[in-house]
Design brief:
- It is a single chain.
- This protein is of the alpha/beta class.
- It is built from seven helices and 13 strands.
- The protein has helices at residues 37-49, 57-65, 85-97, 129-137, 157-175, 193-203, 237-241, and strands spanning 2-3, 12-18, 20-21, 34-35, 53-54, 73-80, 101-105, 140-144, 181-183, 207-209, 216-217, 229-230, 247-248.
- Strands 2, 5, 6, 7, 8, 11 and 12 form a seven-stranded mixed beta sheet that branches. It has a two-stranded antiparallel sheet with strand order 1-13.
- Helices cover 31% and strands 18% of the residues.
- It has a single domain (2-248), classed as Alpha-Beta Barrel (TIM Barrel), CATH 3.20.20.
Length: 251
């Protein structure tokens, strides 16, 4: 476990990073990456009651260019790995609160399971193409989490370029929409973050997300290294948003 210090400022952006919402499937077991449905709803309620405005991807990208365009307290809700619980458990609550979100999916596993975890996490279903289209209809945008969900620090330059360009092409073709935000598997942007950022820029991405950290003070200095709050069942969201510490894992 690492402790992170929140950046304070007059205008803040909190990017919340979830994985699985609700109970494990019958053959699975509980891990830190399952956030109970009641806890998730409590997080959404806390955002509303404390005047955090939940934004969508276009608003995020505009805010990176024009910080004053963002609300004073902006929040972006994200999900890693594309688990089907985003559709079955999270979506109804997001609709009830009127909140958009981002679903980061490793494209090689669409319609399959999280075999990239190699048994380290229980097997759960990953959204199918039909699921992703349904989520898109309700404001939950799909963006890439790589193709094969590999650590970038284990890849050479050609491998990194493939992991960045291939899922972008696949999603843009299948969903008929621009893809502009990347999420690094395991929060790992490689051994040379500057080189990775250059490939992201050349490929047409306008932002990229890490994993772990606290709310960001605006203006954002590194748009291709956006910190996100790692959200688990014991994450104290009020403390995080008030500028204290947040727990971080990486997957």
């Amino acid at each position: 476990m690492r402790e992170w210090t929140t950046q304070r400022g007059d205008r803040q952006l909190a990017i919340l990073a979830y994985h699985k919402i609700g109970e494990p499937s019958p053959a699975a077991w509980e891990t830190w990456f399952y956030v109970p449905e009641e806890t998730f709803v409590g997080h959404l309620r806390h955002l509303r009651e404390n005047h955090w405005q939940v934004i969508d991807v276009p608003t995020l990208l505009r805010g990176l260019r024009e910080p004053d365009a963002l609300p004073r307290q902006a929040a972006l809700i994200t999900f890693d790995d594309g688990y089907r619980s985003v559709l079955t458990v999270a979506l109804p609550w997001l609709q009830e609160f009127g909140y958009p979100a981002v679903n980061f999916v490793p494209t090689d596993y669409i319609g399959g399971r999280n075999w990239f975890d190699n048994g380290g996490e229980p097997e759960e279903e990953i959204c199918s193409w039909d699921d992703l289209i349904e989520l898109e209809r309700h404001g939950i945008l799909t963006q890439p989490h790589g193709a094969s969900h590999r650590h970038f620090s284990e890849l050479d330059a050609a491998g990194i370029e493939k992991e960045l360009r291939q899922p972008k092409d696949v999603l843009e073709e299948r969903l008929s929409k621009p893809v502009e935000v990347f999420c690094f598997p395991y929060g790992d942007d490689g051994v040379d973050a500057r080189a990775t950022a250059n490939v992201l820029r050349e490929a047409g991405y306008h932002a990229a997300c890490l994993y772990g950290g606290g709310p960001l003070a605006l203006p954002i200095v590194e748009q291709y290294r956006l910190a996100r709050v790692a959200m688990g069942p014991d994450t104290d969201l009020p403390a995080v948003l008030d500028g204290r510490s947040a727990r971080s894992n990486a997957t």
